[in-house]
Amino acid sequence: MTHRSPPVPRCRGLSVGAWLAAAVATIGVALGLLAGPLDSPAGAHDGKGIVTIEASHPAGATAVHYIVRVTWEDDGHPAADATVTAAAVGSDGTALTPVTLAPADDDGRYAGVVEFPEAGSWTVRFTSIDPTGTAERSEEIASAPTTGSDDDSDTTGDSDDAADADEAAGFAPADDGTGSSDEAAAGDDDDGLPVWLIPVALVVVIGGAVTAIGIVRRYRTEADAESAQFDALEASRMSNGDASLGSGAGPQSGAGDGSDPSTTAEPGPPAAR
Amino acid sequence: MRAVDSVLAGNNDIHPCFLDSGGSPLAVDAAQVSATTAVPARRLPVTPVTADHVAVAGASLPSPGTWTIAVTAVRAGTPLDFTFEVPIT
Lengths: 273, 89
Prior knowledge:
- The complex is a heterodimer of chains A (273) and B (89).
- Chain A is α+β, with helices and mostly antiparallel strands and 273 residues long.
- Chain A contains five helices and eight strands; from the N terminus they run H-E-E-E-E-E-E-E-E-H-H-H-H.
- Chain A has helices at 9-38, 161-168, 180-189, 197-245, 261-265; strands spanning 49-60, 63-72, 83-90, 99-100, 102-103, 109-115, 120-129, 133-141.
- In chain A, strands 1-2-6-5 form a four-stranded antiparallel beta sheet, with no helix packed on it.
- The longest helix of chain A is centred in the C-terminal third of the chain and has 49 residues, at 197-245.
- The radius of gyration of chain A is 56 Å and the shape is rod-shaped.
- Chain B is mostly beta strands and 89 residues long.
- Chain B has one domain: Immunoglobulin-like.
- The radius of gyration of chain B is 13 Å and the shape is elongated.
């Protein structure tokens, strides 16, 4: 008689659980392997850095403003937490105090100004720590232009003293080509009176004088006419009086002002005005 | 290289000066200073003073114990690492 061993469902059940566990673990490891390179934290960077000089422009007579970018060599990510300096070395080996470049953005850019003490050939070495990297650049610094005295034989007579004062005070030159500065300069040349007010004042004064002279001359003419009429009336009145007085004595020669006595003897209408 | 003006707990000024093997000043291009004790290393702000001298003003070393000061300098692209211990009381 043979005995068949009963089935062991637990073994079968354990086997399924083990397979599930193994599958989950495999998937988890795979996801971990995939996610690792795609999303590595910033602290996981290691290795060297690459320093790239992106821009430079003058920042004064003997100063240059630099913008550099630092990236990690392994993956090209920006190094936003690096220590970056610019150290200039002269042609005679003189090393200037390094200038720390400040972070300019979150993309690994750093910027700063290097002041060169004198003209000449300089080698500027940009160095990064964490990550470590370096880059060099040769810089030719020209001697600072001398401003000199303002003796440019100004024969045109225009007043550029205001412009010179503005330049000394740090403002832009008066003649900036826009035209607005010309108006400002013109307004600065007098003692505060607008230029257009002078011809207006002249017109008012001359017009007033002409008007006053005209009024005086008109009244003077009228006065002369009235005076003449008054004299004529007086003469006629005197003639009438003489005629009445000399009515029995006949005309007197030499009397009056030469007018005809015959006409003056008759009473006539009053003289027309 | 010499550093650490005070060994009392609190704020300290650290002045790393770089010398070559003959004792002459050694110009470096950049330097970085960090300090650590029982906590992870903390980077300290460095101000260049001359080409061979940097300064850390007011470095906070608050707790007594042995602090490790790590200095990394770079000269012509070559990193130079220095480490020294400072007892803080």
